[in-house]
UniProtKB/TrEMBL annotation:
Organism: Solirubrobacter ginsenosidimutans
Designated name of the protein: Beta-lactamase family protein
Domain Beta-lactamase-related, chain residue ranges per copy: 21-380
Transmembrane parts of this sequence: none
InterPro entries associated with the record: Beta-lactam-related (IPR001466), Beta-lactam/transpept-like (IPR012338), Diverse_Enzym_Activities (IPR050789)
Length: 402
């Protein structure tokens, strides 16, 4: 359960200003824009404020509660990235290693050179897809749901829009991804993609374990995250999924109730606010929480550096398909967005802040300078519908008064 662990004033927050968070998002509920919400703010790992309201299931009339389970979609990606870097710390790979060393299907990668969805033209890749390309979405892979390039349509033609065709596991899906053209030469641009799914497959190959087993044994159990898993959520606690106008989306929503064949390291997990708070607290703690260390602090600092080509901002190298962060003033590290220039972002926050979000409008950030972590949960797709994330930053930092 979620319990405030420190008086806001002691943590440097004004309680009356924190209450603005509750009122702001309750208006979204009252206006029929959100079914419900849960926001969690912490400093130095201790909960300062919990705001919740509305319903986890509008049709059933059941409220959002502390233990409500949410589909976190792309908030799975930082977990997969941490898993990979745990293996990196063990010497299992180097960041410059070609992915083909672990997934041979990537050995003959080809790059899109024109043509159409039906008749693509390709050329051999000059640069292999490397491990750091997977961690930074600079691999040249894509997503079928982008609807931005002919290559996205080729992914859809193979059955990869959201997730994978029924009966296809992660190993088979990864070989399919490797057989399709790359959108650009690896390491030259940023395109949000199935890169983290491929990274999850590398974790399986290097560890000799299915991704769900590795996550449970190496991350979830050690950190105390009992409700985080690839589906199989308690139907009584799982929030319903909605589109704008509170149109219920059961086709996608039902996927949270069973364990899928395709263990998507890019978007397959369900979780709770309490569980993800444990994960973000570990990140804030430099890889350690309550005596359990997953990563060394220097590894976390490396992950929090901007790894985009030439040290560029996302704005300079990203294809216009990403909706989990803005581009101005932002870089990308090994699994997270990174604030480079707060003034250019035109949002509250601090340089060095790590963050990411998910398709259903969930989000988190970790601010090492202010020692603040924050999470927001709801179940509205797509995540670009309302400026929920930037508004939570405003409302959180205006309440920080020390």
């Amino acid at each position: 359960m979620l319990h405030v662990e420190i008086d806001p004033a002691e943590a440097g927050f004004a309680a009356d200003r924190l209450a603005r968070i509750d009122r702001h998002y309750q208006r979204y509920v009252d206006e029929g824009k959100l079914s419900g919400f849960l926001a969690v703010i912490a400093r130095d790992g201790r909960l300062v404020h919990v705001a919740k309201g509305g319903l986890r299931d509008v049709e059933a009339g059941t409220p959002v509660e502390d233990d409500t389970v949410f589909r976190i979609y792309s908030m799975t990606k930082p977990i997969t990235s941490v898993a990979a870097m745990m293996l990196w710390e063990e010497g299992a790979f180097e960041l410059k290693d070609p992915v083909e060393r672990f997934i041979p299907a990537f050995a003959d990668a080809r790059v899109w050179a024109g043509g159409s969805q039906q008749k693509p033209m390709t050329v051999p890749a000059r640069e292999p897809v490397r491990m750091w390309h997977l961690l930074t979405h600079t691999s040249g892979l894509t997503y079928g749901f982008h609807y931005a390039e002919p290559l996205d349509g080729i992914y859809r033609d193979h059955g990869y829009e959201f997730g994978a065709p029924q009966g296809v596991d992660l190993a088979k899906a990864t070989d399919v991804f490797a057989s399709l053209p790359l959108l650009f030469e690896p390491g030259t641009e940023f395109n949000y993609s199935v890169s983290t799914d491929v990274l999850g497959r590398v974790v399986e190959v290097l560890s000799g374990q299915p991704l769900d087993v590795f996550f449970k044994q190496r991350i979830f159990d050690p950190l105390g995250m009992p409700d985080t898993a690839f589906g199989d959520a308690d139907p009584k606690r799982l929030a319903a999924l909605y589109r704008p106008g509170l149109v219920r989306e059961d086709r996608m929503g039902q996927l949270g109730l069973r364990t899928p064949d395709f263990l998507s390291g890019g978007g397959g997990l369900v979780s709770t606010a309490a569980d993800y708070h444990r994960f973000t607290s570990m990140l804030l703690g430099g890889g350690e929480l309550d005596g359990t260390r997953l990563l060394g602090p220097r590894t976390l600092r490396l992950m929090g550096r901007n790894h985009l080509p030439g040290g560029a901002e996302l704005k300079a190298v990203a294809r216009p398909t990403i909706s989990e962060t803005q581009n101005d003033g932002m870089g990308f590290g090994l699994g997270f967005s990174v604030v480079l220039d707060q003034a250019r972002t035109k949002t509250a926050g601090t340089a060095g802040e790590l963050a990411w979000g998910g398709l259903a409008s969930t989000a988190f950030w970790v601010d090492p300078a202010e020692r603040v972590t924050a999470q927001f949960f709801t179940q509205l797709i797509p995540s670009s519908t309302y400026p929920l994330r930037s508004q939570l930053r405003q409302l959180t930092y205006q309440a920080l008064v020390d």
